[in-house]
């Protein structure tokens, strides 16, 4: 990977890490459903010029049913779940749990798409979920409130991310990534808008919160999608997906710097287990075998 693309990968990770900071500070005023509706609406408007300029509406028209499903499972449902989860768990913890999405993608792919899952990948799944358990237990010891439902909400969100990825792989192969990204935002907004009318904030959110949601929609959603698909085009999907391992790093950093969140030993160990488990499950971290022959040895 060229250095400039590595810098883009770091910048994208920092931007997506900021989304957890913004969700933590704005969900209390907007509520999860209204926050996601406004965020999705801003992103949809920002992506519209690209959508029209590239005439992607023609491709969207032929694939709207599949893109609608992705809009539900990759935006509407998981965004709401993560807004609720981040508000209760904190930006750092929620961003770490977000890293489990590739593990759920591997699980859904194994049971639904019949993808192969090696023994080392299964070990990675067990290791990753042990990390989630450790994080949950350490969070429970830090606060009186119940963290079970926020943690379950975060894992539910990452399950839907994994489901959306596998669904796209099966039914949207060959469809432009930008068509899926923009089209899914429009479909999610179509579903969320009427629902959000039942969850209007009792008090108008502050100007600061509105500015943060504007940044959440413009930078952490619209711009992030464009950067992500640019990386896929330039370095390939396998390398671009490594952003999932960097987002928790920045999520924790932003939580510490701006929200005074603390990093405990158990949190560090749990995070390491999650990231290492995801790396094994997805094949990012591989172990090669050394084969020995009578005439010598070679590494494959």
Q: Would you write up a description of this structure?
A:
With 300 residues, the protein is an all-alpha fold. It has one domain. The chain contains 13 helices and two strands, in the order H-H-H-H-H-H-H-H-H-H-H-H-H-E-E. The protein has a two-stranded antiparallel ribbon with strand order 1-2. The longest helix is centred in the C-terminal third of the chain and has 29 residues, at 207-235. The relative contact order is 0.21. The model is unreliable at 292-300 (pLDDT under 50).
Write a brief structural summary:
Helix content is 79%, strand content 3%.
Features of the shown structure:
single chain, mainly alpha, disordered C terminus, 13 helices, 2 strands, 79% helix, two-stranded antiparallel sheet, 300 residues
Order of helical and strand elements: HHHHHHHHHHHHHEE
Uncertain ranges: 292-300
Mean pLDDT across residues: 88
Please, how many domains? 1
> What separation lies between the terminal Cα atoms?
23 Å
Overall helicity: over 70%
Rounded to an integer, what's the Rg over CA atoms? 20 Å
Structural class determined from secondary elements: mainly alpha
The largest pleated sheet is described as: 2 strands, antiparallel
The coarse silhouette is globular
* Tally of helical segments: 13
Strand order of the largest sheet: 1-2
Count of distinct strands: 2
Strand content: under 5%
